[in-house]
Amino acid sequence: MPPRPLAQSPRKVFDGFGFCQRSVSAFVQPRSVEDVAAVLSRASEEGVRLGMRGSGRSYGDAALNGGGLILDMRHMGRVLSWDAERGVIEAEPGLTIRELWTRTLADGWWPPVVSGTAWPTLGGCVAMNIHGKNHFRMGGISDHVLELDLITPGGEHVTLSPTRDPELFFAVLGGFGMLGVVTRIKLQLKRVYSGRLKVQQFHTPTLQSQLERFEQHTQDSDYLVSWVDCITSGGGLGRAQIHRATYLHEGEDPAGVAMLSPAKQDLPGHIMGVPKSVVPKLLKLFSFNLGMQAVNLVKYAASVVGSTKPYLQGHAAFHFLLDYVPEFRQSYAPGGFIQYQPFVPKEAALPVLTEILRRSQRAGIVSYLGVLKRYRPDRVLLPHALDGYSLAMDFPVTAANKADLWRLCGELSDVVTEAGGRFYPAKDSVLRPQDVQRAWGQDRLSRFAALRRRADPRGVLRTEWAERVGLDVFDR
Amino acid sequence: MSTAFPRALIVGASSGIGATLALKLAGTGAKVAAVARRQAELDALAAQSSGRVLPYAGDVLDYAATPALFDRIVEDLGGLDLFIYNAGVMPPVEESEYNFDKDRQMIEVNFLAAVQWANLAAAHFEAARAGVLCGISSVAGERGRRGSPVYTASKAGLTAYFEAMRNRLTRYGVRVVTIKPGPVETPMTAGLKLPLMIPADRAADEIISALEGGATEAYVPAIWRPIMFVVRNVPSFVFTKTNI
Fold first, then answer.
1. Is A24 in contact with B127 (Cβ distance < 8 A)?
2. Is residue A87 part of a domain?
3. Interval A206-245: pLDDT, tens
4. Identified catalytic residue from B56, B63, B85, B151
5. What's the pTM value of the predicted model, to 2 decimals?
6. Taking CB atoms and an 8 Å limit, are A13 and B68 in contact across chains?
7. What ipTM did this prediction achieve?
8. Which domain holds residue A83?
9. Which residue range forms the structural domain that includes residue B217?
10. Is B56 a catalytic residue?
11. What are A72-79's contacts with CB under 8 Å, separation 24+?
């Protein structure tokens, strides 16, 4: 009996991590390279459009393909090899960051770049070229990928590396899954000597002082991140609590060696004394502008009176803030939320970020959570990072505010692109084609389109994000 | 005329309750996609409704064709507000007859195909966070009856499935409605002597009123609710001695 046409595969409602975008797709779950090759070839023959998805941690529509087929990669998550001497792992794309570090930490290796949640799959990480709180030192995950195996819809099976077809390699990294399916990832990990980091927190009363502190600490920190109060205006605009962290050298933290055991990396059960199961319900009570202003005030006040003395914190606890409260998104029910994360060159950071905060406050649409991070330029063809800053802002979405929120984000994107800024597909729900055109420029986009014509001549690959921002259009 | 359901889809619409529902919904101003095997009957409905009933010839047992047909209908209608699964068969089954051919047909048409169609509509409504998903089940699904073991089983399955859909979808703003008609005068019941039989026209009116009124479960006519309450609670050792 011939196999069932792909379009008749089971269907599912898929959503973005912000659960304000969702759609119905048929889906298949490949378990091997052969499965992937077969699906790609059949999709091409049957005229079915296909989008890849891992854990669904992209906030918007980057892992959605409504009306088409989703290639759910979570069942291809095996570790293919692990070299504990050199810290080199080879894995299938469905392996999550959590599965990665729980395999390698006991041997003294930690992923060089991790996102704020441990659930994304490596395939998703590579497709989005994820960054962590250390981009200014370590770059994106693309800087640590040694090799990739790729199957293109055109039927090519290729191994890519910085020296083997570098043009395609650096386009697949951060190419949001539009050039083929990555089936093997070889990654260099980072040697660590303790299961802990040395962390220090301090506050900065203004945006300017915050940026100055970041610049001071880029040389002596391994990680830098700040929580920004996006609600307070006037003199306190952009005030923040900064966390900086450094790795511990060999012998510096003898007690931390035992913490290399994954079992010792459990996330704390309480946040500021509140059991984490209660936190989403509590946050929901405060999920209005004045309520969140109070939360931001208390948090900032705590950082002002809190000690600036360094303390030791486990890697997982430091990195995976979003995983502390797995159900934190429920505080945004029922409309969900978006994250708007513009990247701004450092010279323009102060005026542009000031303008962004002021405009959102004037519009009466303020972010309940703002996170500032520092970046260095990136080698990939379509980078979101640049020598500068990103400010990630969570906005609740409601039936009442949606049109205004999208309009505001459009205005902010104009400000950002005017200043030479960029955006991050994994976080996006609001970008328009002109934003992407301005952010990446015609030269990069033309090179990407040419690679896409080569890898996917029949236009099999599609996501709602790529279509929305106009990157799905090319001569078929 | 304003309609509560501008875009409706009825599966099993060529005769009986389905055809009457299609015409009445079209009469309220709805665009109604009508799915059934018989093209001529569907065309007649289209003509009677001045084109507001859109005919889609299709066999619910053609499982391979159903997803694409559903997608085409939703595209043609420009969305979907109301889905009704009404297809059903009840071939005569004699005392002491154990006929897998008939049994299989009832399970497939009354239950399995209903699951396939309603799954498609449910996913659409869940993503849209809106819609009304309606299944025409039967009072027959409330007890297993000696005269129609598999018909009652197929309707019991359908009722349980729609209850599960309700438990799954209510949180997303989707209303799931289970209609439990008693005997209705339709081609399916032609020649049968059944209690409290009502015309299809009245059944359709009561179903539409339940759909428009926000119900999630309706007996048609309403008198079946207290009757079935009693019937449901008859102990099995008593039920085995009845001719129901």
1. yes
2. yes
3. 999 999 999 999 999 999 999 999 999 999 999 999 999 9
4. B151
5. 0.92
6. no
7. 0.90
8. 75-191
9. 7-239
10. no
11. A72/A27, A72/A28, A72/A29, A73/A30, A73/A121, A73/A123, A73/A181, A74/A29, A74/A121, A75/A29, A75/A30, A75/A31, A76/A30, A76/A31, A76/A32, A76/A36, A76/A183, A77/A121, A79/A103
